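README: folding subset

This subset contains proteins for which both the sequence and a predicted C-alpha cell string are available. Records are stored as plain text. Below is the entry for Ty3 transposon capsid-like protein domain-containing protein (241 residues), shown exactly as it appears on disk.
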Amino acid sequence: MPPRLQPPPPPPPEPEPPTLHQLQESIRNLTAAFTDFRNTQDQRHTQYLTSIETLNTQVQTPPHSIPSSSHVIQGTPQHNQDNTLKPPKLRLLPFDGTNPLDWVFQANQFFTHYNIPNHQRLVHIASYMTGDALGWYQWMFNNHLISTWEAFTGALEVRFGPSTYDNHQQALFKLKQTTSVADYQRDFERLCNRVTGLSPIAIVDCFVSGLKFHIQNELAIHQPTTISQAIGLAKLIESKS
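--- output ---
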C-alpha cells in the first residue's frame, strides 16, 4: 500500500492587531522624531543664514585699521581705507633764464593751485631762481625794483623774453612748413602763444596757409573748423604721401 500523506501544518496564527494604545504610542514617537528633524533643519538653516550675513558684512565694511608693515607681504600694494587717489603734488622748476613766457605761465598755475595770493608770491620766488636769472633777481631785489608780482613778471619778460619790437603776428602769418608737419606745428604754437586776439577761425586759416601746397589742397576738401582738426588731418595726409 502507498504511504499515507501527512496533512499540511496549520498556518501560523495571524498577529493580533495593535491596540489603540499602541497606535497612539507609535504616532507620538513619529511626531517626536519629525519634530526633532525639523528642529535640526531649522538650526542648520539659521546657522547658514548667519554665516552668509557675516560674510556680507565683512565684504561691505572696510577695515578699521591698516595692518602693520610686519603683517604685510613684501611687494603687495597698500591702499587707503577709502581707496581714493590723492592728487599729485605740483612742482615748479627753477627758472634759469630760458623760455621765460612758459615759466611765468607755469608759475601762475603753480601758485594758483596752492592758493598763494600775488602779494605772497615774491617771498617764495627766490627759491625758484638759478643761474643768470638768480643774479638778475638778486640785483632787482637789492635795488628795490620789485614791488608786486605783476611788476616782477613784466620785468622778467622784458629781461629774458623776446624783444618787444618783434612783430610776432607778422612772423606767424609768414611762417611756412619746410620739413615735417610736427616741426611746423611746434614753430606755429610757439609764435601763436606770443599773439593774442586772433579768433579760432583765423588761427586755423593761418595754420593751413603755411602748410605745403599738396597738404593744403587736401585740407580744403575736409574744411577743418578747429586747430586740432587741422593738425590731425595734416599729419594724416602727410603719412599717406
